[in-house]
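QA checklist item 7 of 12: single-chain prediction sanity check.
[x] sequence parsed
[x] length recorded as 341
[x] structure emitted
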Amino acid sequence: MNKILVTGGAGYIGSHTVVELAQAGYEPIIIDNFSNSQESALGGIQAILGREVPCHRIDCGDLEALRQVFKAEGNIAGVIHFAAFKAVGESVQKPLAYFHNNVGSLITLLQVMQEEGVENLVFSSSCTVYGVPDHLPVTEATPTKPASSPYGRTKQMCEDIVHDAAGAPDNKVHTILLRYFNPIGAHASAKIGELPLGVPNNLVPFITQTAAGLREKLTIFGNDYDTPDGTNVRDYIYVVDLAKAHIVAVQRLLDRKASEAVETFNVGTGHGNSVLEMVTTFEQASGQKLNYVIGPRRVGDVPAIYADVTKSTEVLEFRTTTSLLDALASAWKWQEALSKK
């Protein structure tokens, strides 16, 4: 059974990926400092799997602590690196914290992986590396333009670091960069899902919290963009579909099928939905009427971005299978489960 270290494994995408790894026959090991996640996710994972998943409560930027985890676990076949701060708006307010955490933790991880001879890495990147693209949809060959936020710049920097490290003469690490679009929804069991600390930075948990009465209203940040209805357009991918893409990527690395030291793939649905479309689709999925208002644009937001998924479809043989309606229904089911606790 291949042992896969999952940094940020108690987070939103991380927890779903841990479940998919275990169900696919891997042995996931979680690293998380719980600065941007909650320990209740571990209970949710255990409830789904029927067993605990080992968890090391450390910061990935702590070199000595990370070394001790690698030595204690031994025989680690690969790493999936999620651990990062991830809110566009917050990154504008706290840029130094984002650079320190996101870039620093990757450097530390790569250093320890090389020391311990761990050769396989799946890196959690983002469509924010494309900046404001000239043409849509974006392919993996679309030029990266200046990022619209410090968060986006950290992902650009991390990708550059991975490429530069791969070019070193002593490098043995093979990496797959997965550029996600916008993950939404929750596990079908409603045992794990998106669980933001404080006021949500992402659209869907703000929608579900508003529908549940936890928020007075949803503010849509701008309706004057050059999009069909004036609101931002994004590529929303069901989080369990996204988690499954990581399993495909890990297996590709373990099977030594990667064609080069660093491979890059978009992971999305291949089409975009506007914020207003998200609101109306959620209302259909949940039967709830949503209270929303139009506010000013938010700093750091790009007008529209969605993926060309040809490469991930043909090379990884990965396809999303869940509709937007079903993904939003799962998010509402998760919110209702939280409300009962």
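[x] summary fact logged: The first helix runs from residue 12 to 23.
[ ] second reviewer sign-off
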